[in-house]
Specification:
127 residues
Length: 127
């Protein structure tokens, strides 16, 4: 799994750079909107990342889930907070979220063990 996580991170970085090199203002603006959305405002960054994690679980996007787990870890979310957040995603999304919950916990375990490289911050669109 560690290789897959690191491959995902490298692929994400390479492709985001490739995509942003194109002269397409809609794509650039969307990426910028994503970046702005996760900056501190009325809600702090930690809260916004937890919201992103729940939304990603409900939408069943493993790439987005991994991204938000890593971001949450970087902003100080502890294991108890993760599992309360996972429970919200599970209740809202239903049992179909369980496979994604498994992968989220596996990724969190790897981050905590120092085996996985976290994706870089929201300098570009997540997921």
């Amino acid at each position: 799994m560690n290789d897959r996580v690191n491959e995902f991170t490298a692929f994400r970085k390479r492709m985001n750079e490739r995509i942003l090199a194109e002269d397409n203002q809609v794509v650039r603006r969307f990426f910028a909107l994503d970046t702005q959305t996760y900056k501190a405002g009325a809600l702090d960054v930690k809260t916004k990342e937890l919201l992103g994690l729940v939304a990603s679980m409900v939408l069943r996007c493993d790439d987005c889930i991994a991204y938000h787990v890593a971001q949450c870890k970087q902003v100080g979310v502890n294991r108890e907070e993760f599992f309360e957040t996972f429970s919200v995603g599970l209740v809202v999304g239903g049992s179909i979220v369980i496979p994604h919950l498994r992968r989220a916990v596996d990724f969190l375990d790897q981050l905590e063990a120092g085996e996985a490289q976290a994706p870089s911050a929201h300098d570009e669109a997540h997921g």
